[in-house]
Amino acid sequence: MIKVAPSILSANFANLQPDVELVEKAGADALHIDVMDGQFVPNLSFGMSTVAAIRPITSLTLDCHLMIVEPERFVAQFAQAGADLIGVHVESTHHIYHVLQLIRQAGAKAEVVVNPGTPLSLIEGLLPLVDQVLIMTVNPGFGGQHFLTPMVDKVRALAQLKQQHGYQFDIEVDGGINDQTVKQVYEAGATVAVAGSYVYGSADPAQRIQDLKVATN
Ligand SMILES: O=C(CO)[C@@H](O)[C@H](O)COP(=O)(O)O
Ligand SMILES: [Fe+2]
Questions:
Q1: Neighbouring C-alpha atoms within 13 Å toward the C-beta of 199
Q2: Which of 142, 148, 177, 178, when mutated, tests ligand 1's pocket best, judged by the most ligand atoms within 8 Å of its CB?
Q3: Could you write out the DSSP letters of every residue in 190-209?
Q4: Closest residue by CA, ligand 1 atom 8
Q5: Active-site residue 179, yes or no?
Q6: CB atoms within 10 A of CB 83
Q7: Using one digit for the tens of pLDDT, what is the confidence trace for 164-187?
Q8: Could you identify the atom of ligand 1 that is nearest to the CA of residue 136?
């Protein structure tokens, strides 16, 4: 069964607390927080003050996906704000190895993220350093986009590398996840699925979390 991380990018920005509590009660495994700077991606969203505000209202793992240039400037502040896991794009910095080290030094779990156009070869040398790898299954920046089917093979290739080397990291997928696409990525080796519009775009978000779990049972 896959772990589910609802993305609050599709929640009610005017009143996040009920949307956070609802998914926690419904059995979500983490809360996905998309941080966008208007430069790495063409959109703006949350910052560390939102993470700090959410921290006391939930015991869910806070999974912060940083879509910002030079994340080394901010990872310690996100950890301080209460992020449990911090994801940084390999495309967003000249110093990815250093950023991953900084995340762990700050006491959080480290994740490397790859855009759809970025080959796995770029992150192979980083795999011993990470707790999770995030394979983007849409181009980052917006919720509600269509799943990019060619990314299933990328998930499979990463799962093979993981097995060959005996790595323990989780494989997360993000973008266009629903009860159909989740089956494809789970079969390929994904262990965590982010879902934004599929969960929060529904009249019954709790049911949607269960649907993702049942689809991969
Ligand atoms: O990182 C991102 C978008 O850049 C995501 O986490 C989205 O929030 C996923 O939204 P859906 O595709 O599930 O609606
Ligand atoms: Fe995300």
A1: 33
A2: 142
A3: --EEEESHHHHTSS-HHHHH
A4: 143
A5: no
A6: 28
A7: 999 999 999 999 999 999 999 999
A8: 1
* Cα distance between residue 17 and residue 54, in whole Å: 8
Residue 153 in marked binding region? no
User: Is 201 within 8 Å of 211 (Cβ atoms)?
Assistant: no
User: Is 27 assigned to a binding site?
Assistant: no
Q: Quick one: tokens of 135?
A: 């394979």
95-114 tens-digit pLDDT: 999 999 999 999 999 999 99
Pick the CATH number of 3-215 from 3.40.30.10, 3.20.20.70, 1.10.390.10, 3.40.640.10: 3.20.20.70
CA distance 110 to 131: 5
Q: How many residues does the chain have?
A: 217
